[in-house]
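Support reply, case 0932

Customer input (verbatim):
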Amino acid sequence: MNLKQAGSGAEVDERLAALLTNANAVRAITAAVEGTIGPKGLDTMLVDRFGEVIITNDGVTILDKMDVNHPAAKMLINIAKAQQSEVGDGTTTATIMAGGLVGEGVTQVTRGVPVARVIEGIKYGINCALEEVKKRGRQVRDMEDPVLEKIATIAGREHSDIAQLVVAAARLVGMEKLNEANFKLSDIITAEEGAENEVFLGVIVDKERMTKDMPQEAKDVKLLLVDDALEPEEVEDEALRTDAGFNRYIDLQSEFKSNVKKIIDLGINVVLVDRGVHESAEEALTDAGIMVVQRVAMKDMRRAAEHTGARVIKRTGLKKEMTDLEKYLGYAEKVYEDEKLEQVRIVGGKGKPMATILVGAATQEVVGERERIAKDAASSVQAAAKGGYVPGGGSVEIAVARALAKAREHVKGMAAYGVDCVASALKHPLAQIVENAGFNPLEKVEEVMAEQGDKDMDSLGVDCDNGEVADMLDLGVVDPVTVKMHAVKAAGEVAVAILRIDTIIKKKEEGAGANQPAGAANTAAMPDF
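Our regenerated output:
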């Protein structure tokens, strides 16, 4: 649009300049991921300046790796990341709906509907949509419910081997564990080149033992977890120059040797250390036949503690009496190093049951994608177990859009056009899924809406293999309720935030560049996408 037209037209264009700029940026982001949705969606290749390549159709990965400068585009990406962090899936749906909602809002504003009325209607429509999605949820009966594997297959982009791994792990940990607020099934997944697909009760520590002279395997394990360096406490260089400081240094060295001896005398045969290990401790523990793993990631340390019943201790805690130290130990049937995969496994822990999903990949290039697929599947299975599921494939969004047409009657004035924006945006996921499958989206969306109305079924969508209207529940196409609700909510939040922006002003430079000569700083009106 020409923003320099004369007369009243120019005033209108200037008033809409920020809105149109932001809408174009959002549209560019949406276009980057919309081709990936659905069973016929394609992959995206991401290439950095060093030539490193990522091939994926995971929405949040595409958005996270894109080189984006426009602030409105970043807002949309941040919403997608929040969706991923909260429920672990549904980022592409959220992005497509947000893009549709912003586009529909701009259309209404350019027709003359006040932005405030559009926003009012969008908020009302989103709240109604959330209630409709929640109302249409079906509950998972138990962990043996076959719907879990269907959910894992859909979220796992039809990788049946990964879906089976995820469901097997979910059944191992059980419904009670899945409902724990701080537990994420996706956290127990690791992918390795050359590994075989596997689910087992135990924990993987993604490190090797310190030296090959240490035992590769330990049975009837007593485990010590040190959340610190296994080294003597330090004395400042200045203090060492004094007699008192030097004596303190000697005492600490002696105390450390005594602490290492306690580890040996307690019969501990595996030690996990958060940081480094002093060479004297390494030598003594090796001679004693103890397996030591250093620089263990904190997430692995926490999982090992939970699985074995251990309590993590600081190095200063090693000063405790041996009877007190025993209370910190964990116990397991076996700990061993897999030399091929360069990792240590802890199995048969005496604490809480912990499952691990090991996803195999043929080459290093596909390790990351296989892991992303498994994490999406795990997140969806856990979300469905906790909050139920709805028909997928864009079908439930169409049912909600139909319900909004009735809700519109309760909205006064021009805010009704905002409700229309929500109803229209809810049609976008199905339209894009159908388009990616090679069918006419306008035709198929209308067919589904008509069939749902005639048969009063919210599960009718499009079979992407033949283009026919079909029951998504019969086809096993289902999505978690929480994923859908978060996608709708996220789309509404970002659309309202972007539509509320009336003016874009470049901030003045602060800090290092604040005193540059006039013209030296970048004074472009706003960076492009």
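We compared this against your earlier run and they match. Two observations from our side: The first helix runs from residue 7 to 33. Confidence is low (pLDDT under 50) at residues 1-12, 517-527. Please reopen the case if you see a mismatch on your end.
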